[in-house]
Write a structure and sequence with these properties.
With about 280 residues, the chain is an alpha+beta fold. The chain is built from 7 helices and 13 strands. The two termini are about 15 Å apart. The structure holds 2-acetamido-2-deoxy-beta-D-glucopyranose. This is LicD/FKTN/FKRP nucleotidyltransferase domain-containing protein.
Length: about 280
Amino acid sequence: MRFSASSLLGLSGLLSASVFVVAQPADSTFMSVRESVAKDYESEGEIPRTKYFSEYHPPAISLPRGARSWQWGFCFADKPLPDDEVTPHLSALIQTYLSIMSSIGAETWIMHGTLLSWWWNQKIFPWDNDLDVQISEPTIHFLAEYYNMTDHHFDLPGVDGGRTYLLEINPNYVVRSEKDRLNVIDARWIDKSSGLFIDITAVRKDEGKRQRGDSEALMCKDRHHYQESQIFPLRESYFEEVPVKIPYSYVELLEEEYGANSLTNKDFQGHKFNEDTKIWEQMK
Ligand SMILES: *[C@@H]1O[C@H](CO)[C@@H](O)[C@H](O)[C@H]1NC(C)=O
């Protein structure tokens, strides 16, 4: 492993400075979503035709010179990060995200590849260049209402001047239809120094399936489907050495998405899992 997350420990004390206080959402459950805000667009004509967030991933692609458009999502970084700085930046990104969400009372948990990397050693895979988190539907409404475009500054150990992160909410979050293929990402937590970001997707009640008798059905606009009991009640754990929430049936969810092999195969992406150190070591 080419970095140490421990240099960023003690974050919780440092993190509170920039957070302003907003009333927490009262008893956020799936049942308390304000239905008036959410729209189930049925006709194609009402599905947004433009994409709010690009799927651009800073580490993988060089930036066009002078590219600074909001819509393109990489207005902050002038150049891509060197490879060996990606994981430490991602680590700080998830640590700051989890701390802010916890301190404002916004429910979030890790999913997909990030959940799989947690399963192995509670750390980001050394080859990953993105992170996946989910939030519940009441949370996306809460964030849109009080936190859109808010800057959050963190003094991070070893980072001169600290780093500022931006929380940006896709205005199309009110469109609940899976037909909105261009706006499957509901929000982003963006590191303004590097342009790296975390994609945030909202998990919603699947009204269609519920009407057909599947009373626990949940969906995301990215076409992932779950049962309420697969996610809730969330479990408490640690990821990158900070508290994190984990979906209830994590093994079942991981096997569904990646196959049972993904939980036993110690040879992965040019790395080998060392059982003693619990670290993915790069193979020569
Ligand atoms: C958040 O703010 C940006 C910039 O002003 C805006 O484009 C976007 O529509 C806002 N999102 C919501 C959910 O209001």
